[in-house]
């Protein structure tokens, strides 16, 4: 019998970039390309409640959601298990033999511990081959974010390829500043424009480079993630007020707010909420609840957020009154007044 040869390692792309930089939007578009039809995708989110995998529309069967923490810290063991499980399922024929793997990290991820795990784990390093690190970089906010968040700086520094996002809304000065920041932190990285790239942005392999992975993990400072799951629905009007209040009273602290919201007037389909720092996208409805679960799910990531901020505010606007909780009228009158229960602590 001829000796068994080891299977060729599966190319793996790490897609990273800070909170709201545009990773999921990019991935969603590129996965429609037949060149990525045989890709498996792992989506990691910092919140307990996963949202992103529900918004990646096209390869639902090939997507694994890893919510509940950052791959760079609490979830490293889960990443290893997930990648091993995928291999086992592939080897046993339980899932199609995917030909490449894309890992979308959470926006808060320090990429260095993730790259350490992928390149130093004996079994994973044998079965997967790091093909490229691709970083989504917000052309409008990116430079300021890099100054404040070490995670964002490392995401740039580790990149083989940087996909500049939001160039459609950036002015010339912002574009120059974004390119200058990249030139300073990642001078060797290839730069491409989000709206102009196809699947090759995730597939093409740059020349092999040596990265300095011998750096201690960066913490996430005072940044915390809070989540909410609720069966209660908001009316369109109370939804607008809820978001407006979050934005006006807590905007400076919020790095990211996203979710699916159950709306009284449209019970059959969720409204998608997307906020990145002070910028909120126009609300849009999906055609249906992506996983058949018609509950509102929200995640907020920010600095110094009170743990019960989302739950308290949402309940108030959904009309769920409680003795120790301000109702929506009181909140609108004075959103910053301290409340029993510490809603605005
Ligand atoms: N104008 C504009 N908006 C964009 C672009 N890319 C993403 N967005 C918007 O930015 C917001 C965040 O986009 P996502 O793709 O969810 O960002 P992300 O990096 O996956 O976010 P996290 O996973 O939460 O870190 C959404 O409202 C998108 O519609 C872009 O190129 N141009």
From TrEMBL:
<keyword id="KW-0547">Nucleotide-binding</keyword>
<comment type="similarity">
    <text>Belongs to the SIMIBI class G3E GTPase family. ZNG1 subfamily.</text>
</comment>
<keyword id="KW-0378">Hydrolase</keyword>
<dbReference type="InterPro" id="IPR051316">
    <property type="entry name" value="Zinc-reg_GTPase_activator"/>
</dbReference>
<dbReference type="InterPro" id="IPR003495">
    <property type="entry name" value="CobW/HypB/UreG_nucleotide-bd"/>
</dbReference>
<dbReference type="Pfam" id="PF07683">
    <property type="entry name" value="CobW_C"/>
</dbReference>
<dbReference type="InterPro" id="IPR011629">
    <property type="entry name" value="CobW-like_C"/>
</dbReference>
<dbReference type="Pfam" id="PF02492">
    <property type="entry name" value="cobW"/>
</dbReference>
<comment type="function">
    <text>Zinc chaperone that directly transfers zinc cofactor to target proteins, thereby activating them. Zinc is transferred from the CXCC motif in the GTPase domain to the zinc binding site in target proteins in a process requiring GTP hydrolysis.</text>
</comment>
<protein>
    <submittedName>
        <fullName>GTP-binding protein</fullName>
    </submittedName>
</protein>
<dbReference type="InterPro" id="IPR036627">
    <property type="entry name" value="CobW-likC_sf"/>
</dbReference>
<dbReference type="InterPro" id="IPR027417">
    <property type="entry name" value="P-loop_NTPase"/>
</dbReference>
<keyword id="KW-0143">Chaperone</keyword>
<feature type="domain" description="CobW C-terminal">
    <location>
        <begin position="223"/>
        <end position="318"/>
    </location>
</feature>
């Amino acid at each position: 019998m001829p000796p068994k040869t080891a299977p060729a390692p599966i190319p793996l792309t790490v897609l990273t970039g800070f909170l709201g930089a545009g990773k999921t939007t990019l991935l969603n578009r590129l996965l429609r390309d037949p060149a990525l039809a045989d890709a498996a995708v792992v989506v990691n989110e910092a919140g307990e409640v996963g949202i992103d995998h529900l918004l990646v529309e096209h390869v639902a069967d090939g997507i694994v959601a890893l919510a509940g923490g950052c791959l760079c810290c609490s979830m490293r063991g889960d990443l290893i298990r997930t990648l091993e499980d995928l291999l086992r399922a592939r080897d046993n024929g339980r899932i199609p033999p995917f030909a490449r793997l894309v890992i979308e990290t959470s926006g808060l991820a320090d990429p260095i511990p993730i790259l350490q795990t992928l390149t130093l784990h004996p079994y994973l390093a044998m079965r997967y081959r790091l093909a490229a690190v691709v970083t989504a970089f917000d052309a409008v906010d990116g430079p300021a974010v890099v100054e404040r968040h070490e995670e964002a700086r490392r995401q740039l520094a580790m990149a083989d390829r940087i996909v500049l996002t939001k160039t459609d809304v950036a002015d010339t000065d912002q574009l120059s500043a974004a390119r200058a920041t990249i030139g300073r932190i990642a001078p060797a990285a290839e730069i491409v424009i989000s709206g102009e790239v196809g699947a090759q942005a995730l597939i093409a392999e740059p020349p092999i480079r040596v990265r300095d992975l011998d750096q201690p993990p960066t913490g996430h400072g005072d940044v915390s993630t809070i989540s909410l799951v609720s069966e209660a629905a908001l009316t369109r009007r109370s939804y607008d007020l809820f978001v407006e209040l979050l934005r006006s009273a807590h905007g400076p602290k919020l790095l990211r707010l996203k979710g699916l919201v159950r709306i009284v007037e449209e019970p059959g389909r969720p409204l998608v909420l997307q906020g990145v720092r002070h910028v909120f996208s126009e609300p849009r409805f999906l055609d249906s609840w992506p996983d058949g679960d018609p509950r509102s799910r929200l995640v907020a990531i920010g600095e110094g957020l009170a743990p019960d901020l989302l739950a308290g505010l949402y309940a108030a606007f959904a009309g769920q009154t409680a003795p120790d909780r301000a109702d929506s009228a009181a909140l609108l009158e004075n959103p910053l007044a301290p409340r029993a229960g510490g809603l605005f602590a």
